[in-house]
Amino acid sequence: MPVSPDLIRPAAPSTDKRWKLVEATMRRMGNNPRGLIESLHTVQEVFGYLDLDALRFVARSLRVPLSRAYGVATFYHFFSLRPPGEHTCVICIGTACYIKGAPQLLAAAKQELGVIPGQTTPDGKVSVLGARCLGSCGLAPAVVYDNDVAGKVTPQGLRERLANWKSHVS
Amino acid sequence: MSPEELEQIADAERDRQAKFKHTIKVCVAAGCVSCQSESVKAALEKELDPAQGGQAESGCQVKGVGCMGLCAEGPLVAVGNHTLYQHVAPADAAEIVASLDRERVSRLTCPTDVPFFQKQKKIVLENCGEIDPERIEDYIAAGGYTALMQVLADMSPLQVITEVTRSGLRGRGGAGYPTGLKWSTVSKAVGEKKYIVCNADEGDPGAFMDRSVLESDPHRVLEGMLIAAFAVGASEGYIYVRAEYPLAVKRLRTAIKQAERLGLLGNNICGSRLSFHLELRLGAGAFVCGEETALLASVEGRRGIPRPRPPYPAMEGLFGEPTLINNVETFASIAPIIRNGGEWYAQIGTEKSKGTKVFALAGSINNTGLVEVPMGTTLREMVFEIGGGMAEGRRFKAVQTGGPSGGCLPEQFLDMPVDYESLARAGSIMGSGGMIVMDDSSCMVDVARFFMDFCMGESCGKCVPCRVGTYHMHGILTKITQLNGADYDIAQLDELSDLLKNTSLCGLGQSAPNPVLSTLRYFADEYKAHIEEHRCPAGVCKMGDGNGSGLEPFEAESSVPVAPAGKESTE
Question: From the CB of residue A122, how many other CB atoms can be counted at a distance below 10 Å?
Fold first, then answer.
């Protein structure tokens, strides 16, 4: 008797336990195509980014074409297709931060690390990202250093923090 | 759960709180958390805990509460109802605890008899800064879920809709569509199943009203959605919230679990025929998803790309079924309207814009933060009284409302009342409530370029006018901010604006020219100085400088191709 395709579950790309979490999310969404974004959120949460193996696995499990999974992953800014650096520095470039000096912060980050938002330093130490708005406008200009929001950041303060990360040997 | 049981929970919670002689409230919304309010809270708790070497000051509770409004002065700590401390550090805990029965600590005191607090009228924010957002009991003790009980026990769906219509409430997401009318359309629509969607995808840069409401009083939004579900006959709901708001997501998850446990969500709520299930969906950073059809596509797990309307979501929305979509603030206004009646709400505000509106005040003013004012408050009151005037004594130049879809209004509009119609007439929009004040150090051409850069990056690419039009307008504005503009550029901007406004598929493209049009209208001399005299009056733009004030091109992370197959395996 032919096996219904519905019963065939693709195997996880590796034995990494974190795939269990991804599988749990997909199961919660009924392995339905409408769970695509939620599943990608889980992948990014546990692995830090989405690679091709992950996209393939999720696409197959939810029975959507790989092109659609790739389309969704590249459409939304929140998803990253490259591994993040050891540290991340998110500079808010919302309106309030922009008029209070975010451009100077971007310039300082570029001067210090030589990267623009969206890039990671070649040694993989620091990623610099730009955010549309963190919603911390009362603290403008705001920067998130590895999940810690800092308010009223000066270019000098930013450079010191980045220099510290750069020189820190892990 | 019956009304009596709800009353019991409320009484028990009030009794519990009445036992404490003092209550110290620490703001634990995102603004204050980012200035370490959580360690302030821990320090206060330690001071009061004899086991940890603190003073055995009994009869005092430390409570985490939502946003108190004055975000720029955080961390904020309130003692009782009359004392507010600002810029509190963990080291100040001992002094605050020691002062409980004595004089307040004057060094930290934040005056509360100022217009910032006096001029506000809090309806949506009534519980913000008062209750613990992570305890449903606290919300119930403050009168929460009584509106739901009232609706389930004594009202028909039609009566609920009539009450909302009578209140004159209009969509707080920005467009201002009458809420009662929308509810009535969805209730009349025929479908196998109906859905309620709460739009919490607050993408406007410079706006944080929805985030504060969700972080400070999540149950209020749930209650509004439940009442809406009863009114339109929906059985499932989604809250579409930005993934960039982790604290709001966490508090919503907690709130949903608590409501389920008490039987306020689920099947046959409170023994009635209402069954309602609620789930969260996380946005993934796309501004266009604030547009309703794009949002629905995203909830369905697809790319957030709008589709032509009609059919409107009220007829054919989520999964092809009738769907009611409202903004966070709209849902948050529902419970008070039911409790106090539509007439009461309609008395507040102006003739066509009723009630109150929450604004996120930011930019070059002294009091940045979250405020709620009656509709019809003038911009002057907002900026110079509530906002405390210009920061660093600078000169007022413009106020920007509505984010990238709104406009910049100059000094001559300061006495204009803030309501949907007046703002639209002046060439801006109400928007979701971001209000950014700019001083003379901001170049308006550069601001217009900033917003166009945003719209260009956020255009979903489906329709040509928006995809190509924003690109070209951005190019022209960049040229002008490099002081290389030509005479015909203005005419071309006008022409492109007209094209985008009239031919784009969704609101993003239709409103993208607003910042350009409003600055062209009110700050024409600045454009002229850039083009004819090759100088920037504000001193922001420099000749040949890549991007006005030096903002680098924004490389979206996702525009990078995936590494070739087989590479970069996840260990």
Answer: 9
Task: Please report the ipTM that was assigned to this predicted complex.
Answer: 0.91
**Strand B369-374 versus strand B356-363 pairing type:** antiparallel
DSSP designation for B276 = B
Closest CA to B72 of A143, A141, A145, A105: A141
Crossing angle, helix B246-261 and helix B218-232, to 10 degrees?
60
Q: What are φ and ψ of residue B516, in 5° steps?
A: -70, -50
Strand order of the sheet with strand B396-401? B369-374, B356-363, B434-439, B396-401, B407-409
Distance from CA of A60 to the nearest CA of B (A): 15
Contact B29, B66 (CB under 8 A): yes
Contact residues, chain A, for B560 at CB < 8 Å = 81-82, 118
Closest to B540 in 3D by CA, of B467, B445, B401: B445
Residue B202 is given by DSSP the state: -
Bridge-partner residues for B373, per DSSP? B357
Contacts of B27 (CB under 8 A, 6+ apart): B37, B64, B65, B66, B67, B68, B74, B75, B76, B77, B129
User: Under 8 Å CB-to-CB from A36, ≥6 apart: which residues?
Assistant: A58, A62, A64, A68, A69, A72, B301, B302
Residue among A51, A74, A77 whose CB faces B570 most closely: A51
CB atoms under 10 Å from CB of B354, counted, come to 24
SS3 B142: coil
Q: Give strand ranges (E) for B410-456.
A: 434-439
CA distance A58 to chain B (A): 12
Judged by CB atoms closer than 8 Å, whether chains meet at B205 and A36 is answered as: no
Say whether B205 and A93 touch across the interface (CB within 8 A). Answer: yes
Whether residues A79 and B203 touch (CB distance < 8 A) is answered with no
User: Per residue of chain B (571 residues), what is the pLDDT tens digit?
Assistant: 888 999 999 999 999 999 898 999 999 998 888 888 999 999 999 988 877 766 655 688 999 999 999 988 889 999 988 899 999 999 999 999 888 888 889 999 999 899 999 999 999 999 999 999 999 999 999 999 999 999 999 999 999 999 999 999 999 988 899 999 999 999 999 999 999 999 999 888 888 999 999 999 999 999 999 999 999 999 999 999 998 898 999 999 999 999 999 999 999 999 999 999 999 999 998 999 999 999 999 999 999 999 999 999 999 999 999 999 999 999 999 999 999 999 999 999 999 999 999 999 999 999 999 999 999 999 999 999 999 999 999 999 999 999 899 999 999 999 999 999 999 999 999 988 999 999 999 999 999 999 999 999 999 999 999 999 999 999 999 999 999 999 999 999 999 999 999 999 999 999 999 999 999 999 999 999 999 999 999 999 988 754 444 444 444 443 333 333 333 333 3
Which chain B residues are Cβ-neighbours of A71 within 8 angstroms?
303
Q: Do B552 and A136 touch (CB under 8 A)?
A: no
Mutate to test the interface with A, among B558, B560, B571 (most CBs of A within 10 A): B558
Cα B299 to its chain centre, rounded Å, is 20
Q: The pTM is what? A: 0.92
- What is the distance between the alpha carbons of residues B253 and B489, in angstroms, rounded to a whole number? 50
Cβ contact, residue pair B556, A107, below 8 Å: no
Question: Which of B174, B63, B38 lies closest to B129, judged by CA?
Answer: B63
Select from A38, A78, A135 the Cβ nearest to the Cβ of B30.
A135
The encoded tokens of residue B43 equal 């320090």
CB contact under 8 A, A37 and B282: yes
